[in-house]
Amino acid sequence: MITQHPRTAIVTGASKGIGAAIARRLAGDGVAIIINYARGRAEAEEVARAIEADGGKAIAVQADIADPKGIAALFDAGETAFGGIDILVNNAGIMKLSPIAQTDDASFDTQVATNLGGVFRGMREGARRLRDGGRIVNFSSSVVGLYQPGYGVYAATKAAVEAMTHILAKELGQRRITVNAVAPGPVETALFMDGKSEAQIEAIGKMIPLGRLGQPADIAGIVSFLAGPDSFWVNGQVIRANGGVV
Confidence band (pLDDT; 50, 70, 90) for 1? Predict the structure, then answer.
């Protein structure tokens, strides 16, 4: 049975980290949430239970956005559960760091498939199936401006996302669908912390003028604004949220 809801959002990669914080924040804004996960079923269901305990609406849906059929399955689930989709947050991504000369084909292919292919298919499906007046929020990264060694392929995928964000915003303007991107700097999540020593993390924190790593809630607040009614005149933009590091 379809339950009509005022607004519904798909948040990819929402079982933990920034995605989970976004899901909870949007649910607090009164949005029904499709919590996407690829492998973290228990974590995704925990996020859904937390949202429902606070009076919100959420379902956890498994789909690999690197799979060409993955994003369509999320829209199908959202339409079945809530009647339609208004907001798409393309948050899911992977990061494999290595100098370009040492990057193997498998690492390149997996990052391109998820960070670029998954977001491309999300934008394409959103362009076809979002209700008029909707919102698409993509995720880039501030490494696009920092150009740090080791981030070559990752930064390249995110730069491509920024280019498509600008173009899709112009293509969907007549339907009043806005398309923007958030480009976080260092945020204290498993994705960022993995493989870094305590000394490396401390050094990165000292680079940030505001004096600390970002927190998932810092980014969730920006997504809440871009997904809400007050952001209508913000379209085709990339917001760098990084404490002033770039």
Answer: very low
Note whether 153 and 113 are within 8 A (CB): no
Distance CA 96, CA 39 (A): 18
What average pLDDT does the segment 216-233 reach?
97
State how far the alpha carbon of 234 is from the alpha carbons of 69, 85, 130, 226, in Å: 30, 20, 18, 8
Pairwise CA distance, residues 50 & 34, whole Å: 13
Tens of pLDDT, residues 116-172: 999 999 999 999 999 999 999 999 999 999 999 999 999 999 999 999 999 999 999
Residues 6+ apart with CB under 8 A from 219: 18, 21, 22, 182, 184, 187, 241
Residue type, 24: R
- Is the separation of the CB atoms in 218 and 185 below 8 Å? no
d(CA 145, CA 155) in angstroms, rounded, equals 9
Which residue type sits at 161? V
What does the CA dihedral 159, 160, 166, 167 come to, rounded to 10 degrees? 160
Specify the pairing of strand 58-62 against strand 135-139.
unpaired
Please name each of the domains of the chain with its CATH number.
8-240 (3.40.50.720)
What pTM was computed for the model? Answer: 0.94
Q: Which residue has the tokens 């009509």?
A: 4
Active site residue 154: yes
